[in-house]
Predict the 3D structure of the following.
Amino acid sequence: MLGRAQQHRESLTRVASLQRRMDTWEHEERVRDQLVHMLVHDLKNPIAAVMGLIEIVQDDPRVPEDNRELLKVAHDETQHLLHLAANMLDVRKIQAGKMNLKRELMFTPMFREVIEQARGDVGSGLRDRHVRVEIEADLSPASADPEILRRVLANLISNALKHTTTGGVITLMVRGLPDGVQIVVRDDGEGIPEEDIPNLFAAFEQSRLTLHGRFDTGMGLAFCKLAVEEHGGSIRVESERGKGATFIFTLPSLEDNEDDDFVELV
């Protein structure tokens, strides 16, 4: 009995030690998350200001033609940095369960409008690509947050841009399913190595050098996965090295109880 009592005391001591270590780890995680959030949030405004100033200089007719390409590169890189900051904030927000979706009825015209907005978010790089948009007419309504959907599409289009060359083709398709809507973003770029696909949607776990010499952290795709799943949908990728990549995600159709809510709002 004395031996068992001694073992019990030792076990309690180990449990208390482990609990203190766990509490310390959780505190450090909270502090780290808060620091990341504050840092990224504070970076967004100056980055946006720099991008706006570059746009003003780009429109100045006094700028020599040979400098315009440099300004274009500076603008695109600044926009990439802004998107990265926004994705980091949103990934943290979704993981913490603080992403409140503002769902709306999504019909064919709204899908077309959101796609056009997403193309504008990507920037001037799309001028060197052929973008094809195919939207099925008379789609049954889907339930989605248009602003979050716009961000998802902008990330997928930006990803296609980074992995294609000048003159490449990027295709966007929206078509109906029996239980929702399927959205496809396809490119004819370099494709994805088979070994990279399992970790493709994990932030910071997968980095690969793009055609344009920029390492892809995967943060944008991590946001896409979390945002789509937050809607109740799913996302996957089909790709073969050298033959482009196809990202496919679904949005659920409007459920009966949601339909009643929308009717009451009207």
About this structure: The radius of gyration is 23 Å. The CA atoms of residues 28 and 34 lie 10 Å apart. The chain has six helices and nine strands. The helical segments are 2-58, 65-95, 108-122, 146-162, 219-230, 256-265.
